[in-house]
Design a protein that fits this description.
This protein is mainly α. Helices cover about 80% and strands about 0% of the residues. The chain has one domain: MetI-like (MetI-like fold). The longest helix has about 35 residues, at about 25-55. It starts with a helix and ends in a 7-residue tail after the last helix.
């Protein structure tokens, strides 16, 4: 418990507001790396995922890419890109690594969301005269948004944890405190920075969970409620068991 109390004291110490890397600046940098990387990855993966889900072409490639991404060592990828692009481009190299790690879950969420739409819905949209683009953006995309948000949620959590590795190649983010703490054997600093990363991940996960519920179309929610109503009525009619 002393280590946890020391870590909390380290977080709220006035010294964290000064120095070469103040704590608020480190948190902001950590979030900036996360959001920029996820936005770039989303700009690449979402259109590709929608195209795959709508046409059915390239699905095998997307599945293989998503599976292969799980085997890529994040730390090795960051260091490799730093070596390839040069130490003068460490920010670009780190961001590129984070983007590459974020693309597979977003791609999977995008095409899975479109594929999950029932064929009768798509056929009904075509039967009323909608074009392929209209079917995609008026039927498939709105109904597939929850799964897409799920992919963004997974990618954001992966990136916010992986951005910690940027502390090994530059004095950025909360990872800097972990690397520095290892060097000077300050375990309260290591744990304090790790706790802040956990808090960021939990907060972002909660926000995406709320968003995932909000984007469910109202008609779908109403349909689920009406489908569940007969089951609830049947459960209410079942008599309670009697005891001897």
């Amino acid at each position: 418990m002393n280590l946890f109390s020391d870590a909390i004291a380290w977080i709220f110490s006035p010294d964290r507001l000064t120095g070469a890397l103040p704590l608020p600046e480190a948190i902001w940098t950590h979030l900036a790396f996360t959001f920029v990387s996820v936005l770039i990855a989303a700009a690449i993966a979402i259109p590709a995922g929608w195209a795959i889900g709508h046409t059915g072409r390239g699905r095998e490639f997307a599945v293989a890419l998503s599976g292969a991404a799980r085997a890529v060592p994040s730390f090795g990828l960051v260091l490799l890109l730093v070596l390839v692009l040069g130490v003068t481009h460490k920010i670009a190299a780190s961001t590129t690594a984070f983007v590459l790690l974020a693309i597979p879950p977003i791609l999977a969420g995008a095409y899975a969301g479109v594929e999950a739409v029932e064929r009768r819905v798509v056929d009904g949209a075509r039967s009323v005269g909608m074009t392929g683009w209209q079917v995609l953006f008026r039927a498939e995309v709105p109904l597939g948004l929850p799964l897409l948000i799920g992919g963004l949620r997974s990618a954001t959590l992966q990136v916010v944890a992986t951005v910690t590795l940027a502390g090994y190649v530059g004095n950025w983010g909360l990872g800097f405190y972990i690397v520095q703490g290892i060097q000077i054997r300050d375990f309260s600093q290591i744990l304090g920075a790790a706790l802040l990363i956990v808090v960021l991940a939990v907060v972002l996960d909660a926000l995406f969970a709320i968003l995932q519920r909000v984007v469910v179309p109202r008609g779908v929610t109403a349909g689920r409620s009406s489908d569940d109503e007969p089951a609830r009525r049947r459960r209410r009619r079942v008599p309670a068991p009697t005891t001897a």
